[in-house]
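new request in #modeling-help
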Amino acid sequence: MTPAIQIQGVRKSFGDTVVLDGIDLDVAAGTVLALLGPNGAGKTTTVHILSTLLRPDAGTARVAGHDVVREPAAVRAAIGVTGQFSAVDALLTGEENLRLMADLCHLGKVEGRRRVAELIERFDLGEVARKPLATYSGGMRRRLDLAMTLVWRPQIVFLDEPTTGLDPRSRAEMWQIVRELSAAGTTILLTTQYLDEADELADRIAVLDRGVIVAQGTPTELKRLVPGGRIRLEFDDQDSVRAVAGALGHAPRDDEGLALEIPSDGSLASLRAVMDELDRSGVEARSLSIHTPDLDDVFFALTGHDATVPDATVRGENAAREEVAS
Amino acid sequence: MSAIAPSLTDATTMLRRNIRHAVRYPIITYLIALPVVFLLLFVYVFGGTMGAGLPAGDTASYLQYVVPGVLLLTVAGGATGPAISVAQDLSEGIITRFRTMNISRSAVLMGHVLGNTIQLMIATVAVLLVALLMGFRAPASVWGWLGAAGLLTLISYALCWLGVAFGVYARGVESASNLPMPIMILPLLSSGFVPTESMPSWMQWFAEHQPFTPFIETLRSLLFGTPVGSDAWISLAWIVVIGVGGWLWARRLYERKTLRTP
């Protein structure tokens, strides 16, 4: 089966700023791929290329089997895009916005009305559907935005930072919507700078850093790429901590000083060694837990830097976008 | 042919959207108010003096003289509408959404042009009604009136494309509302308010070679049933130049500019 999205050697520069430095990526039909990376990594540029808003300088990108440069109309007919910036008509009501989409998708009067009612219900916009957008909260706006993208049921959906700036409840709602979309068989490419979001929603994650994909795989595979699992022991008092810390060598303590974190590869042998040492020292631990590395660890291990980018780089990309616009 | 029907549907959808905007945020009051103020001012305040320069020499004949100019002034103000509405659209993400959808590119801009042309026509009729109340009478035949309506519609349509281009070109809504200003000056520097012969010679040259003088002269001929002459052809040529120029410019800019800047 051909992948829903195929990217080969795509490069894009804005002036002197290289934003995408040759990326390759496949997304299988019906799966969720998270493009994970900090601000300025090139996530939005990737989405813009895939949604025919920008042409790549080199390389090819195919969406739903169609080349984004040579067959943009066919690509547009297969995709739905919800960008980082709200793409709603602020002078219309929510319902009118959805009707506008239904009309532009040529759904026909009856089917259009039915679909709009269904989305209003599904996205919990019933109370505000006939009110002007000025009265909408950030979460409602974002839900309306996504509902508009889904009016005609695109097979491939791009979500560019769908939860940036949302409160935790709206974020959870958005996650639920993405899960349902995926369960219905939609291929989803979402970009995010939140590691937990990628972990939560994606079948596969591609880590994008400074225009290069530095790793990709399932969340579990990615976590396996890095050593750095640990066994965490908690104690009731400082004396116990000191005793065990002495016995185990230099195990780092956590901030409150009542726990120890011992590096471990997660194997049974390493766990047994810790248990034996505990027995020998005769100290009771209050609790023991085993931590596999999280995506923060993954990011650091893959890129050698934190998931933040120096301001200069971010400014570079913004300046480049300005340039494209003028 | 098959590509035309869907883009027509899309343009109609966009037109509906534009009309909804216009009903909710009526800028049409400004389109009507300014020319009406000019009309009252020129006829009742300056009319006596202005009229004295005309063959008949009174306020009533100045009213007859000035109305075509005021109607063109109404139309000239119309480029501001699409400039603002397009700039407004571009300041929101909605245009980016349209560009990722399988809809005709020109439908988005066409919606603005048609919506604003309709508003301009309504405004022109309103201004004409005020003129009729003030005593303006035109001896035109039905064909004369139809010709006048057709002329004003074509000029509006062409100017709306230019306005759309201004809107795409502008850096924001405010600059979009200022860019079309020079167009509003043009009817004042034409034969619309005083005969060009009364102007200083350099201004006379300008007045006779800018589009609004043939527009106004053609409109006068149509309304008063005098022979139209070469002004009609010059007007049509200007309409094509303004309309096609605006259309090409708008499209070119639009292709480049619809990526939302952060």
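bot summary: The mean pLDDT of chain A is 84.
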